[in-house]
HTH lysR-type domain-containing protein
Amino acid sequence: MELRHLRHFVALAEEEHFGRAAERVFVVQQALSNSVRNLEEEVGVPLVLRTTRRVQLTPAGQEFLVGARETLALAGQTVERARRAARGEVGRLTVGFVSGLAFGGLPEIVRRFRELYPNVSVDLRELTAPEQEAGLRGAVLDVGLMLLPVRAANLDSRALWRQPLVAALPAGHPLARKRRLKISDLAPEPFVFFPRQLRATYFDQVMRWCAGAGFTPNVVQEAIEIPTLLSLVAAGVGVFLPIEFFNRLSLPGVVYRPVEDAPLVDIMAVWRRDEGKNPVVRAFLGVAEEMLGAGSGQS
């Protein structure tokens, strides 16, 4: 049974006239008559009483009309669901993110994405960059949000936001009285920082920057999460070099100062190459770029 036969039958039932029904569905009258007759043969009972003046439905035709309308409505909904899926408007998305993005970037992206795509279920997972890379490779994650690109053959990445490093200092520190610092000002200071294995690229970038100024940071305490590191700064344990947007995390006892010639750190979206045409992934990347407003260099 073809949908066009149902459409022809519904048009005939509503118009009660072969000529008007044929015009409504854009076919010649004989084609519509044949379509309805084929439908009756398939159903096995008469659906229409044909008279010289008008067309009437048989009792079977009246019941069939109810089902035909329901079937056509369901078919329309099914087509629309497919079209919405192709536009990335329905589905499920699992997104990994490094902890610091919870304080800037991630809330804006997720809020906007849910406004535009309310029928997409978003599962957020706070993970380190290595955990995200493993999750992407294992198809546990659809998109990862992390600092700096991941170099892997089956992963693509896109820069969403570029931010300079800044100095986080204890509020009573003498350097806090300066409006702007040089990286060499921090040479004698104890540092707090991530373990290298958690954010190797970020760690190495900071170390190269400091080495260019003639010193190696004296890391006296390591911690995994940004809030912990900043709490250590507030306690006077050491100084820290976070990305600028972390200054949104306003903690008592911590001040932020810009540093001359600070390197820029990319905040990246990463996804599996074979998911690059997934409409939900593409929709999320588009919203992420819109909200963070950075360049789109792809690696």
